[in-house]
Amino acid sequence: MSQKLIIQDLIIIIAAKNHSPSILNPDFLKYSGIVAKDWNLARAPIYTQSFARLDFSNGITIIAEPNRVMFMESMADKKIDSLQIPEIARKYVQALPNMEFEGVGINPRGYASFAGSGDAARQYMSETLLSPGAWQEEGEEPMRASLNLVYKFKRAPLYLSVTEAALRQEDETTTPIVMFSGSFSYELTGETAEKLTTLHQAIDNWQTDLSTYSNIINNKFLANMASSTDMVSDTAAVPDLFAMSATA
């Protein structure tokens, strides 16, 4: 059986002109019906002049900046059809119909684990995804790489970043992984009503986009990789993750 992608989280980003971070507060979200009134914060809100962040105890985070708002939800062991942020994003837009919306990003993020060898993730990047050559042999240590790819689809382009990273376990040990960070980027054009229609259609595409992303990673990037007893299951809970720079 081939190795499988573990989807870590889904992020929906809505770009808007003159979006004030001060809009984002629990009272506004609850009284507008964007989130349920019984939702509790996991920690104190963060507010600055140009930034606001709310972390809820159910694993959903909302971040507001002057030009965009981000809705983030951890996948962990959730079923795809149980994700809540698409509906939250729709309600947020409906509560601010006069906002100048400019674009929507449907951004899935996942990884493949390479627990069998400390150097396996780097080797996958340099030997499987890249062609061998003398250009890889410079430097005092093995070269590290990251890739930025663009796939053109009729509904929206997919920007895909492939990067070596690591998972930090509770015992402070790390597991090498390769991150696959995707972004379906929808541009909104036309008059306000047309933009709102396109915006809602883009949000409604989230399951199609997530399926396309998963298919590309599982069936194109990982299809020929043998599974290992050391590999993380595709239903496993997600430990802490930190990126490893390709130039580190």
Explain how this protein is built.
This protein has helices at 26-31, 85-95, 120-128, 192-204, 206-221; strands spanning 6-17, 46-48, 51-55, 60-65, 68-74, 100-113, 146-151, 158-168, 174-187, 240-243. The model is unreliable at 227-239 and 241-248 (pLDDT under 50). The chain has 5 helices and 10 strands; from the N terminus they run βαββββαβαβββααβ. The chain is an alpha+beta fold. It is globular, with a radius of gyration of 20 Å. 22% of the residues lie in helices and 33% in strands. Strands 1, 2, 3, 4, 5, 6, 7, 8, 9 and 10 form a 10-stranded antiparallel beta sheet that branches. Strand 3 and strand 4 form a beta hairpin.
Write the layout of secondary structure elements.
Elements: E1 6-17, H1 26-31, E2 46-48, E3 51-55, E4 60-65, E5 68-74, H2 85-95, E6 100-113, H3 120-128, E7 146-151, E8 158-168, E9 174-187, H4 192-204, H5 206-221, E10 240-243
Antiparallel strand pairs: 1-5, 1-6, 2-3, 3-4, 4-5, 6-9, 7-8, 8-9, 8-10
Helix pairs in contact: 2-4
Question: Briefly, what is this?
Answer:
The protein is α+β, with helices and mostly antiparallel strands and 248 residues long.
